[in-house]
Fold:
Amino acid sequence: MNTTTISTDGPVLTPAMVEQIKAFFPRYPSRQAVTLPALHVVNEHLRHVPLQAVVEIAELLELAPAQVQDTLSFYGFFKQDAPHGETRAWVCRSVSCAIRGGEAVLDHMCQRLGIHPGDTTDDGKLTLEFGECLGACEFAPCMLAGDDLVKNLDELSADKFLDTLGVAPSSKKNKPSLTDEKK
Amino acid sequence: MAEYYEPVLLAQVGKPDSHTRAVYEQAGGYRALRKALTEMSPLDVIEEVKTSRLRGRGGAGFPTGLKWTFLPKDHPGPIYFCLNADESEPGTFNNRIIMEDDPHQMLEGLIISSYATRATTAYIYMRFEYPLAYRRMQAAIDECYAAGYLGKDILGSGYSLDIYIHRGAAAYICGEETGLIESLEGKRAWPRIKPPFPAVEGVFRKPTVVNNVETCACVTHIIARGAAWFQSIGVSPDPNNPRDAGSLGPKLYCLSGHIEKPGCYEAPLGITVQQLIDRFGGGIWKGRKAKAAIPGGISMGLLRADEFDCPLDFNGPSKYGCLGLGTAAVVVLDETVSIVDFLHNSARFFAHESCGQCTPCREGTSWALKILERIKVGRGRLVDLDLLLEIGDTIGIMPGTTICGLADGAAWPLKNAIRKFRDEFETYIRESNPGGYGDTTPVPSLSLQELTLLGSH
Ligand SMILES: Cc1cc2nc3c(=O)[nH]c(=O)nc-3n(C[C@H](O)[C@H](O)[C@H](O)COP(=O)(O)O)c2cc1C
Ligand code: SF4
Ligand code: FES
Structure:
């Protein structure tokens, strides 16, 4: 369910964001082609793309809001209901990482934080997600945290990563276990 | 195959500041661009690339020069060049290494290729998960503008070109060339029915060429060293098969999984899986034995350990029942890996990445995953294996039921894993579900909670 309502308190796109988006116009022969760049601009600033931003992007690109929303929703990448954490991290679950223990490390991190994959911690510091192959399989298992690739991830380096972020465990959610499969 | 081979594509990788123009030019960089723009016509460049018999490195292996000739003659333009840097095939990371460590090598090839095809704008469609490659490529582009290698009237040749990076948003299907085009246009990345092929009607409904990062890197060296040099490497076309285009030139092989020294290595096309493991990989990790390997990204299927003499050229893997060479990314599975787990992992990827446009692919990949989840948690039935094979045999371009090749890529691991490791699946089902095997009554689906525990959603 989408809980975002269209804001009545005016625009969510700041003039700076609008300028950044407009800077893409000369690159393409169509305004619609600026959809992904615009979504990235907003996402970079707001850590999500609320519905009101979609409406405003559509106006800038001379599209129906539904066209922008259609594209946004195709890519699972953009969150809409609430911002992701200050850091967004993807732990690779594809083959090379999985067979070298990637999923077990993600399980460990989730247990420690008391969250499920995909969740944001209560303190808003971290959103921890699954990723498909990050194109860094020579460092499997690996994690992309913001712009930083954490290579050869294990419980030790995962703990160090969480310590550095200073992220606190969340209390409200059930502790999941990925490896607790009924075999 | 020659015992010793001097890397060309990776020659600069690992050297200090190899990503900068200064270092690239010290090593002879941008001489090929100068040569192409001042001494060769666009047709000369196309002829040279055709003569080299370069085939695309992005997965399909289509002859590059031939693809360029499909562009309409005397088109008023604009013509677009799309560089496919979406690299998302599990196991594959060679494009990332080029873009991070030697971006100018690829950029030079991209400018030459755009010149040959008379493109006036080139878009680099890069997956979002490559932040360092993005920064390095953008810096390299900026350096090229500053040096007069991009922009108006490049090197006084009268040819003008702009290059822009377009960042993706974490969707594998954007690597499929027409999915890429739709995504670039700002739409959902639903691949298009072909024809029309992109060369005739591509991005913004204009003639468009889509080529891979490594393909463009090869173009640089073909112009610098000549087509004859390129042809002297790799596997020549089979003289008894007029349709064989051969497997010529150097290739970047990605080696990962249960291997002592994972990495990206360069070798002439045609090296075998075993040679790759022995020569570069330092053997199977922890001194264990290999059970299987993926020959070219997960979409290509599986080789058993006794099939490691498979040559990694454009014809080799299909002779062993695999889909093809794909991205030449080899992932080694050691003897402790359960093939059931492997196939579940593969099915999960494709169910997640199917764009949902074609019913056989959308439903086939999601049912394959559901069935494999059921097998994995001990509720499998022997008939499930035939059900999975039926899905594998009926989805894809090859059986003619889908628009793009993602479905073929989903089908091949299913077919190969079950046909090559059927005993292991049967034993797993018998042992994990002793009361149930052979039973054909429907099994209740897993609860949402159980599915979440398996990390599938
Ligand atoms: C599902 C799917 C994903 C693909 N992903 C990529 C990719 O990430 N990079 C790439 O270069 N080609 C990819 N391809 C192949 C492209 O469609 C296209 O053949 C290729 O970019 C052409 O370039 P080349 O001739 O230089 O290889 C993919 C194909 C399919 C069916
Ligand atoms: S085959 Fe699958 S991924 Fe390709 S267009 Fe059809 S539904 Fe989409
Ligand atoms: S499989 Fe994890 S980075 Fe490629």
